[in-house]
Write the C-alpha cells for this entry.
Amino acid sequence: MTNISIDKNNQLARTGIIMAMASIIMLFGTLISSFFVLKIRLVESLHLPENTLIIGIINTALLCFTSISYIFSEKMYKQEKFNTHETWLFFTVLGGYGFILGQWLLWSELKTLGIPITFGQLSDMFYVISGVHLLHILIGQSLLLWVQLSRNNNYKRIQNVGMVWHFLTILWVAMFISILL
C-alpha cells in the first residue's frame, strides 16, 4: 500500500513539474520573441563586447557541467554510493553558485562598458531575460540545497530535482543561442 502512495505522490510531483516547465517555456518564449521583434523593429542587434561574450560562454559551460555532475550524483545515489553522490552534488551546487556569480560579473561588465540596464530596449530585454532566468536558477539552487541538506532523500526526489535542473540548463543554452543570433 505504501508503494502505491509513493508512486501516486511522485506522479503528482512530476505532473506539477511538467506544468511548471510548460509555463516557464511560455514565459521565455514570450520574452525571446519580444527580443526578436525589437531587433527587427529597431533594425539593430545587440552587440555583446568580446569579454562579455566570453563570460557568457564560460557561464554556459559551467551550467552544462553542473547538469553533468548532477547526472553523476543521481547515478551514484541509485548505486547507493552515498559519499560519491554527495561529492558530485557538492560540485553541482558549487557550479550553480559559480553561474550566479558569473551572471553578476556579466552585468557588472556590461555596466562598466556603458551598457547599463536602461541603455536601450534591446539591452533592457537582455537584462530582463537573463534576470528572470537567474531567478529560476536561484529556485533551482534552493532545490539542490534541499536535496543536499535533507537526510531523508529518496531516488524519486533526486530525479525530480534533476529534471528541473537539467531543464534550466537547456533553457539557458537555448536563450544564450537565441540572443547571439
In short: The first helix runs from residue 2 to 42. The chain has a mean pLDDT of 86.
